[in-house]
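Recap for those who missed Tuesday's class. We walked through two folding examples back to back. For each one, the amino acid string is listed first and its predicted structure tokens come directly after. Nothing is annotated here on purpose, so try labeling regions yourself before you check the end of the notes.
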Amino acid sequence: LAILLSTGIRANELIVLKVSDISRNGTTFMIHVHDGKGGKHRDVPMLSQGKPFVIKYLQQRDQQKATWLFPSPSNSKDHIAHTTLFRWLRKLSKLMTKEIQPHTFRHSYSTLLHESGVDPLSIAAILGHSSLTMTKHYVRPSDQTLIGEVQDVKI
């Protein structure tokens, strides 16, 4: 789940990740997405907060020589199913005050990038969008941002 939040990739892109799709160059982690929506390939930088979770996961995961980053528990030659990911999210949702969907992470990631000053064209490229119109649907200002925007406005 840390990968969803720290990369903004889609759920169907996450479950088919291979161990070889994570590259590390110094302190930078990149996730290579093969055949994303529309058959697009892209490299997605991982936020630094997600790196420790990925490192720990890779160290703790079963030492089987599975190709998949998230191998199926019943068949290591296959990746986990969508239902497995949704089961994990249901468990997480029970701990939270609201339901969490895979796209919740994607929206949170894109909003975080936007509020951190990342250029909208870069956000669109990271998300795999060919148009800024689609990216606008993912970026929602937080309540704090809205309050900050109007706080000093005088009538």
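Example two. Treat it independently of the first, because the proteins are unrelated.
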Amino acid sequence: KSAPKTRPSATEETPPPPPRRPVQNDPRERSERIFLAQCLSNAPVGRPYFEKLQDGDLSTPLMRELRDHLKKHAENPLADLPELKPELQSAVTEVAMLSEREHASAEVIQLGFLQLEKAGLDRKITGAPGDHKAEIELKRQELIRKIGELSAEFA
């Protein structure tokens, strides 16, 4: 005959939950966070880019959520912060702090946008069927040309 199973009493000590590991940034997100901060730093120039950024230009769902939050709260990015999930709170806070460090020029913002578009096409081309790769590659080459021209203006 086996002993009856007993449930632990509330007074028995249960092990604490494992410590929460800090959220690790996806390395692909770094340039996206910097770009979004640049847009915040120069709102008259940068705000329209929140609308121009397509889902495919951003590497992760978190970056899409960040863009959407900034579209709604460009004047005060920290608005509604407590209502956001922790990862988004962290991303919003980081981007807001970065935006206060320096003012980005229109050219820097435009260059950042083109680079994000190119990165999006780079991701898209790897999974595209053969008949679509040529079309994507043409768009990609055009972006590379524009990036080169804009970069040459800075030199």
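Answers for example two:
The CA atoms of residues 44 and 67 lie 16 Å apart.
The first helix runs from residue 29 to 41.
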